Amino acid sequence: MTKIEKPLQPVEIRERRLGSITGYSGTAGDLVARSRDGSLANRERSFQQASMCAGLCATLNLTLIEDAVVINHAPVGCAGDFAQLNRCRRRGQGKRAMEVTNARLLSTALTEHDTIFGGAQKLAETIDQAVARYHPRAIFVTASCASGIVGEDIDSVVTEAEERHAIPVVAIDCVGFRTQVWATGFDMAYDALLRKIVKPAVTKRPEVVNIVCFSGKKAYFSELLEPLGLVANPIVQFLTVAEIETLSEAGATAHMCPTLGTWLGAGLERRFGVPEVKAPPPYGLAGTDHWLRALAALTGRSDRVEAYIAAERAAIAPDLADLRAQLAGRTAFVAAGSAQGHSFMTVLRDLGIDVIGGCALHHDPVLDHGHQEEDTLAHATRDKAEVPYGVCNKQSFELINLVGKLKPDILLIRHPGLVVWGAKLGIPTLYVEDEHAGIGYRGLIRYGRKIADWIANPVLERTLARRSPLPFTPWWLDQSPYQFLES
Start and end of every Nitrogenase/oxidoreductase component domain (predicted)? Predict the structure, then answer.
């Protein structure tokens, strides 16, 4: 029985399901080798500054569904992230030229009294209020550490509410303390959709490709697929419940970030027969070539893909040569989620920039489909396996120590809370907010120009470095950045 078919409820956490880790130091080649031979083990930290919650990742994905409501069954303190989630929703809608609306997020605001006597009645009343206020097509109830500790019976409440209101009401057991790999929250949210929302296909649309992605512009995907006669369907953010119901009609599912969509892609294939593209995302020349060929093979377009690849490579060749001349001799460091960071490393390599180090926020040795074709780290470092690489799960004290020693010409960071540290070191630091702008052949040029501009104007970062002292003492900065990783 395959991982996705196991009758698990809740979803098994990534540490047990995939062997995912949050602590490692070494080289990219060593990490790839250990991931494949079974010798990889997590290294715990004796000290850490920060972390993130799987519940937040689950809530974020579900908040971006257009006509759904998300209820967080938690103390009101967990609602502190609601403003950030609303910003993500509004920003993403703006990217896709949609009507900008506020998130439909509610909290049951559990109190100490509720943790003793139970909060089931409060949850039932909140569901009723959500229906009266928003008339949603579905309601998702996310659990929390507090509701998990007291053993709140959320399933019974949502079952009764579903019968009462005749819409899907789905419980997501995303209790934060269950896992140190917060990407497990993505899996839990997607599993809720696979179990309760996605329906078996009535008709098939073989030209449609589900693109599992964050909130990037649809135009990036369309420019890559339309020449092959394919239609991009970015999922699941900013879709309606009715549109999510039809995901099973697509001809294929592809990933822009396998870390994000591993459970969803495998589930659509094994439960609904939608084949999954098992290739690294289309970043960089070789990556885009490989991805397009794999997609063409699944969708019956192998006869036209080679001409398309040759034409696109020829079209960008002059601009790529200019960028490589501008960026020759430059160095970079990448800090991002695992697969997304590996994709950025691929882009940098094709631009002629030397990637002298990187760190991921966690590492998945394998994905849910179980195949190695989509090993993004092996693909990104295939000709430079000795590059220093770590897994630092947002520990800023490790990042600033490591980057301060390597002194790259540019630092690429995916998560905004870490961006300030590169600037404080005087290093041009690019926050990769528009994470999918670099896909495909044209994306390589788009991102190359942005990186060239960033390196050419380091005035802001150098000014900040002069006027904003670091909070870390020489005692720490002189040590190994992974001093607190246990053996």
Answer: 53-453
